[in-house]
Amino acid sequence: MAAVSPAPPPLRAPDLASSSESPARVDPAALLTRADGTLDARLTGLISSRARLAAQLRTLGSLGEVVGGIQGEAEHMAGEIGAVAETAERVGAKVRGLDQEQSRVKECIEMVQAVQDLKSTIASVDINMQKHDWEAATRCMQRATAIDPAIVSSTFADAVVPTADLPSAPTATLAQLRASLLDTFLTSFRAAAESNDTNNINRFFKLFPMIEEEDKGLEVYAQWVADIVRAKTGALSSKSQSPTHFSVLLTSLFEAIALIISQHQPVVEKYYGEGKMLSVAGSLMSETDKLGLRVVANWEDERRIRRRVADAHAHRFASADAEAYARKPLPPKPGSSPMGQQGAFDAPQASEGDLDPREADAILTELTMMSGRWQLLRRFLYGSLKVPIAAPPSNSDGATATLDPPVPSKAPEVPAPAADEADLAVVEDSELGKALTKQLRDAYMPLEVWYLRTAIERAHQMDEPDFSSTPYLSSSLDDTFYIVKKTLHRVVSTASVSNLVGMCKEMRIVLERDVAEVWKARIEGAFKDLAANAQSQSAIGGMAVTGMAGMAQLGGRAREEERETRERDARNVYIVYLNNLDTAASYTSRLLAELSASDALGSAFFLFTELDRARTSFALLRSSEDKFRAVLKSGLDHLFNQLVRPKLRPLLSDVYKDVSYKLDDDAYNEAEYRDDVRKRFVKAWDALLSGYKDSLTEGNFNLFFSTAVNVLVRPWESMIRGMKFTELGALRLDRDIRTILSYLSSQASFASGSLRESFSRLQQIATLLTLDSPEEAEEVLTASGNRLTMGEVRSIWALRVRWRSGRVRRAPWRLLSARAALLSSSPPHRAMSSPSGKRAAAPPSSDDTRPAKIPRVEEDPSSSPTLRRSDRQVTWLPSVGVLKSLLHATYGQPKPSIKVAAFSLEYTLIMPKDLVPYFSGATEWKWFTGDGRVKAKLRELHAQGRVLARSYAIVIFATQTSPSKERLDEYKTRIGYVLRDLDVPVRIFTSTSYDPYRKPAPAAWTVFERDWNGDKEIDMKASFYIGSAAGASTSTWDWDLKFSVNIGLLFSTPQQYFLGELNEDSWHYKGWIARKHDHSLPLFMPTAKALVPRPLDEWHDQIYEVILFVGPPSCGKTHLWQTRYESKGYARTSPDAAGIQKLLAAEPPVSIIVDASLPSQSTRRSLFHLVESSSSRHRVRAFVWDVDETVAKHNFVFNWLYSSKGDGEGDKRAWLSEEDWRRWFGSYDKLDRDEGLYLLVKHFVFKFDTAEFGQARFKAWRNKFLSCYPADPIKLPWK
């Protein structure tokens, strides 16, 4: 085959007209030369490809012979296949014809066989019927019925099957035979039923389904079982004097029904199929309705129900007039018991008219049993005739074994939907059930309400107070709720959800009207007596004032005693019914809760919808609890306003009589020694409320106590804001408030949370008076939940006088603003040397060595932003830490550097715009200097990199105290404004929680140095940190100074760096300084007495003692026992009375160490009396650790972080929160020899072996707030 190569494109002459050159400059020769060269190149390419194309054509030509051979073979094979296909088609057609003929022959054979079977079967049926072999005849009929109806009705069958004896067509013959069998079975079954021949009954009953006559069989079977029930008619007509006669009759009837169903249901479902018992049960229930309605009618006539219900409706109760009860006196009767009248409610005395409570109780009980038995039968029918349901087990004692439904071995987790609805028609349409429901509505509810009200009325009439009980109560409380509980349980026993709902409504009305309102009326009567008594007292006082003193004095003592007696009696009656109301509310809630969770409720209401409705109905009755609480609240308020409120303001006046907080050192020491405020308050408070604690219930006293505290703090705050305070006076006020709060908490441990809430403003006022700067105020008040407005803060700070040795100071933020406004020049800044090397040297061992200051950088006000517009945005990176508490943001793509300029934010770079101590709003801020010097300084630090290649990495470390989402959004917006105005690359870290990322802890710095500075080694000599919290004389905060020491950077204040101040004393370390702690001091002072006593001489016995270790946690108590006493055989125990008594009685005797903090004097005194009364061989000593709170916290943090030793038991000691420390130091009472202690050993020095960890680690600064240290930064999982 020849291959054709593609033709080359035609050659074209150059288009001179289209040339881009102008006509004046065209060179024709050059154009022709270029065209000629192009054509030569193309021709050369075509010639070079000719050999390749020829080789390809040869290859294609050699393949032509191969393709031709393949084509020939394919044509030969196609011819052979075609011949085979024609042969197969001829053979297949003949085979299909044979298959069709064979299938027709098979069908004919099968039809002939079926017709033969039909003929023989019909003949067998006829023969067996003549022989009265009904079972064989039935089986043959089944065989005939199973034959295909098309064959039975075919023409062939009509021609072959008929015989001389049975000449009809097969279909007609089968119908005649079935009818004959049915008639025989019906006749035989009825005959067997009349003769009670159970064998023949069962024989013929199971034959009906075999001839497809199930309905007829069930019909006659139902008639038979109905006759069995009808035979009970004679027993139901008998009479008896038993109070439960009619309920017993219905019970026997229902048991018979249940027995019949349980016995016959397996037989019916075996031969007729599952669910076929339902029609039989319908017939049974129809007969049951007839018999049961007769019983109910006889019960109604015999018990005279209609007349009794009419009498109940016509009865008038005395409780309708609550004033009658309010006027009834309640004289206490010695020896009487509030429960003494409970037996009377089992058989109350007859009231006016023919209606007797005892007869009503018997009628209600009988009707309850009748309704309960019906519901039990109903439950049995649902369980038998429907899918079994999951129901709680029944504990009803009255249920008979015959009526109990089958209990599944394991209840399904999810009930079947069909079993959750009352949709079983044979039960729900029962006339007997409807009649019993009508009796519950028309008879039970009126009689039960009458019986309940009668019993409650009787309880009020027999009411007796019990002033010997604690708290005071009266007998009507227990009597009332005894009958309420009895009534409620009886209502549930009726097992009728509609009856339960209706009775809950009625009982709610009865409790509110006949109980709550009656007690309210008696409270109002007692209140009138109190008011009248107060008026008589004022009248007597008026007589003395108007000159009738002689007459007033005559018999004055008797009248005064009589008045006090009347007031005491009226108050006691008042308290009795307040306690009744509180206890009644508790009883109601507990009774309903117990009943809702009890098995009785699940047994009574087996359907889930009814059970839910029953539980919901209790909410109607639960509203009575709200009524009791409402009346109680009103009564307590009246009692408080009448007897306590008028005495609270005079109480404060007596407490603060001659008290001043303008204290100098001597006055402060005297005030601390006398402790007048606390002692007066304790005495007055005890006198005011001591009489109520034992007489009121716990709930009432809690509410009464809380109300008193809430009312007290308002005039207390006004009184404090009318005083003046020196610095020591503010400290004394804070001490007084904390000790009083501690005392109140000990009196009402149940209300410690509400007490702190009530005292929150007082505590913040006292704390605010002791603070020196806005940073302190914002930090402390925010941490404790600020309750003071800005105006209140200013007015409180205005109460301070002679602050700091008589100098009247301006507010710190005003001082800073004034400095910024007045200083317009920047004197030269003096430089100090810093430790050499790339890393910071170890902290100095003395506070005398100041941190090195920063060389001042000359400002350049003309410097301008250098960032591109695309870089001028704040990027918030993922937060750092386990709790994501360290916010991280950048601006302008900051670069790593070996030099770091670190700054604090608030009061270092920016300040609030107005003269207030807080930042409020995203735009309410200004630069620290009030002009452009802060921006110029930071821009110059950045600009040095472009000029001298030594740019600083600028890092800001800020804090926010647990900000809300709104405050955090506001803060981020403010940061955006600040950084965009600054416009230099900056990285900012913000701590939002008290954790290791908060200054002075170095964790935030560690994050920057390790993760965000490009692995560059920081030049600590050239880097620095600027912060305002440096412990200046106007501030107590020093975390910025300590932060710089912890991270090893040079430090300076913003006043020095930005304003050029040269004050050398602008920073000081505050509080206890770990690096100055002297470990060479003796362990204890005085040293004259040995820690372990020795016998006086060899003839005297060993001295046994009990030593109380008194001191805050982490001051060395356990360490002292381990090093000095454990080897001497001293037993160590906690302040547990049982454990101490066991050790005191040990043989041989042992000395004991009570290793606990024991801050309370009352606890120590009780331990001393315990030892004194339990053992004559032991004396008591106390060792006291006078350790400052800061020292104890530092030691605790250090021990918790680094020591593997625990509290003596080998385990890590429990973490103590800031609240734990405040609680201990707030409740600490100094030791006194009057406590009975043999010897006081004071001034124990904390001794901690730091050799294992290093002095530098022990002396590092820790955060004041202990929650910063659940783990040290070196141990924290950062990412």
Automatic annotation (TrEMBL):
<dbReference type="InterPro" id="IPR048680">
    <property type="entry name" value="COG4_N"/>
</dbReference>
<feature type="region of interest" description="Disordered">
    <location>
        <begin position="826"/>
        <end position="871"/>
    </location>
</feature>
<comment type="similarity">
    <text>Belongs to the COG4 family.</text>
</comment>
<dbReference type="Pfam" id="PF20663">
    <property type="entry name" value="COG4_N"/>
</dbReference>
<dbReference type="InterPro" id="IPR023214">
    <property type="entry name" value="HAD_sf"/>
</dbReference>
<feature type="region of interest" description="Disordered">
    <location>
        <begin position="322"/>
        <end position="355"/>
    </location>
</feature>
<dbReference type="InterPro" id="IPR027417">
    <property type="entry name" value="P-loop_NTPase"/>
</dbReference>
<feature type="region of interest" description="Disordered">
    <location>
        <begin position="1"/>
        <end position="25"/>
    </location>
</feature>
<keyword id="KW-0813">Transport</keyword>
<feature type="domain" description="COG4 transport protein middle alpha-helical bundle">
    <location>
        <begin position="174"/>
        <end position="524"/>
    </location>
</feature>
<protein>
    <recommendedName>
        <fullName>Conserved oligomeric Golgi complex subunit 4</fullName>
    </recommendedName>
</protein>
<dbReference type="InterPro" id="IPR036412">
    <property type="entry name" value="HAD-like_sf"/>
</dbReference>
<dbReference type="Pfam" id="PF20662">
    <property type="entry name" value="COG4_C"/>
</dbReference>
<feature type="compositionally biased region" description="Pro residues">
    <location>
        <begin position="1"/>
        <end position="12"/>
    </location>
</feature>
<keyword id="KW-0472">Membrane</keyword>
<keyword id="KW-0333">Golgi apparatus</keyword>
<dbReference type="InterPro" id="IPR048684">
    <property type="entry name" value="COG4_C"/>
</dbReference>
<dbReference type="GO" id="GO:0015031">
    <property type="term" value="P:protein transport"/>
</dbReference>
<dbReference type="GO" id="GO:0000139">
    <property type="term" value="C:Golgi membrane"/>
</dbReference>
<dbReference type="Pfam" id="PF08645">
    <property type="entry name" value="PNK3P"/>
</dbReference>
<dbReference type="InterPro" id="IPR013167">
    <property type="entry name" value="COG4_M"/>
</dbReference>
<dbReference type="InterPro" id="IPR048682">
    <property type="entry name" value="COG4"/>
</dbReference>
<dbReference type="InterPro" id="IPR013954">
    <property type="entry name" value="PNK3P"/>
</dbReference>
<keyword id="KW-0653">Protein transport</keyword>
<feature type="compositionally biased region" description="Basic and acidic residues">
    <location>
        <begin position="847"/>
        <end position="859"/>
    </location>
</feature>
<dbReference type="Pfam" id="PF08318">
    <property type="entry name" value="COG4_m"/>
</dbReference>
